[in-house]
Write a structure and sequence with these properties.
Distance between the termini: 104 Å
Helix content: 40-55%
Shape: flat
Strand order of the largest sheet: 1-3-2
Structural class: mainly alpha
Radius of gyration: 38 Å
Length: 142
């Protein structure tokens, strides 16, 4: 290849310097990237981790009730971490979204309209449905 370059009068010195400069630039960029990565890792390691709060007795983290001083209407533990004594009582669990408290959804047959009245069944022909709507609206005004 050098023979061909010399034959055509190409200055190989310029090419070699260009290749070396490109390699040096890549090496410098890699070094800067490694330094930035090391700095970020050191910063992350230096940041103190917040330890979980330790309670002397089982305590609700929401309302601060304990086994000795329960909620006014009484409560029980829904979630309790025995290592830290931090927990959530049955009175606070629905408020915190941790379970407890049943959803009281009406069965489909008892769903109501916006006015609070049971919805009319949507059966029959369009004419029958229209007649029902007329009857319902006339009795509502009455």
């Amino acid at each position: 290849m050098l023979a061909a370059a010399k034959h055509y009068g190409v200055n190989t010195g310029k090419i070699e310097r260009g290749v070396k400069a490109e390699a040096a630039a890549k090496a410098k960029a890699a070094k800067i990237k490694a330094q930035a990565r090391a700095k970020a890792t050191a910063k992350k390691a230096a940041k103190p981790k917040t330890a979980a709060k330790l309670f002397p007795v089982p305590t609700c983290t929401h309302c601060a009730c304990t086994e000795a001083a329960a909620c006014p209407d009484g409560c029980s533990w829904v979630k309790l971490d025995k290592a830290t004594n931090a927990g959530v009582c049955s009175r606070c669990a629905p408020a915190k979204g941790k379970g407890g408290g049943k959803k009281t959804e009406k069965p489909k047959s008892q769903k109501t309209s916006k006015a609070g009245k049971p919805k009319a069944r949507e059966t029959g022909t369009p004419a029958q449905r229209a007649a029902r709507q007329v009857v319902q609206t006339s009795t509502d005004k009455g």
